[in-house]
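ok so I'm stuck.
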Amino acid sequence: MPDYKWINTDNIHYITVPHWAQEGVSVAFSACLGGVSQLPYNTLNLGLHVGDNMDNVIENRRRYLELFSFTPENMICCEQVHGNLVAVVGKEEQGRGALDYHTSLPGYDAMVCNTPGIMLTTFYADCIPIYLFDPWQRVVAIAHSGWKGTMGRIAVQTLRVMQKEYGCSPENIEVFIGPGIGVCCFQIGEELVKQVKEEFSGFNGILKYESNEYAWDLQLTNRFMLQEDGIRSENIIDCQLCTACNPEIFFSYRREQGKTGRMAAVIGLNY
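replied:
not stuck anymore, here's the structure
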């Protein structure tokens, strides 16, 4: 399957999936540079909920969305509570969370849409963005999958909503697993190790044991659960980039111990 690609436009660096773009899908994951925010949010912080100046964040969002001929008013954002609820959205929800975090869709961490002109947007600083696209039914989705969302199998919940609401077939759906904290940097404690082993007992290789501690591969876990639910292996792109050990291009909550900006994952149908 074709791969992802880095793009630099107007000094804003982002990752995209070129063959999805050829299908009329705007899809991107931003790096941390090219905006107007000041330390510790320098410079392209796209999160309104982290303590940054609101005007700077909205300007950053305007610059980012403009690359795809969208505006912040085209965005729909969800609250991101580290759960596994999936919202089906359309024109009525357009603009939610775009200019004010408190108008984000409450309680949701994933969104599914088949309406052109809407940019589904979620925000990251180590959690894993899961993008889904059905080129047959022309449906797009985004799921915010941190460790709690991964335990709650939010990627699979999103897939099932696509099936139920739009008649999507898993064998037709393509997936891009974007940047997030890698197994190189996501060391976890004994209690969580126990939970992971219980929940994902058949997923070989998702836990690595080195230097007397375990690390959890969230990207691989999400890949396995999607394959288990019918997504074809050849239809999954996993960029395997770690946000925590790439400070020159990504914000990282763990690396900065909480005080940092957010990248944005965006996906929307152009037609």
